[in-house]
Amino acid sequence: MTDRSFVVMVSDRALGPSVENIGKKLLELDGQGIYSTARPLDKVLHHLVRGVRDDVLLKTNLEQSDLENLLRKNLGGDYKLCTIKWMR
Q: pLDDT per residue over 61-76, tens digit each?
């Protein structure tokens, strides 16, 4: 599978603690199929881990369904506050 870019968009309904949790959980997935090529992942997620909503461009070599399952499992209830948009 080739690397594909995707954007994690956090809903306007997400409050600071949920946004912070999403950022921390995404950071924990570094090296598990989710990464950033431009900068280290912690620099890409710096707003989210501080509870500030932001859209985040990431890359993966996972299939779409595998990525969604990984995010659903690791983000728990906060997954419903995220939308994944695949870049072409």
A: 999 999 999 999 999 9
Contact 32, 25 (CB under 8 A): no
What confidence tier does 31 reach under pLDDT thresholds 50, 70, 90? Answer: confident
Q: Which two tokens stand for residue 43?
A: 């620099």
**Domain boundaries defined on the chain:** 4-86
How far is the C-alpha of 2 from the C-alpha of 82, rounded, in Å? 24
Q: What is the dihedral of CA 58, 66, 4, 34, to 10 degrees?
A: 30
Whole-number Å distance between alpha carbons of 22 and 29: 11
Can you tell me the distance from the alpha carbon of 85 to that of 52, in angstroms, rounded to the nearest whole number? 19
Q: What CATH architecture applies to the domain 4-86?
A: 2-Layer Sandwich (3.30)
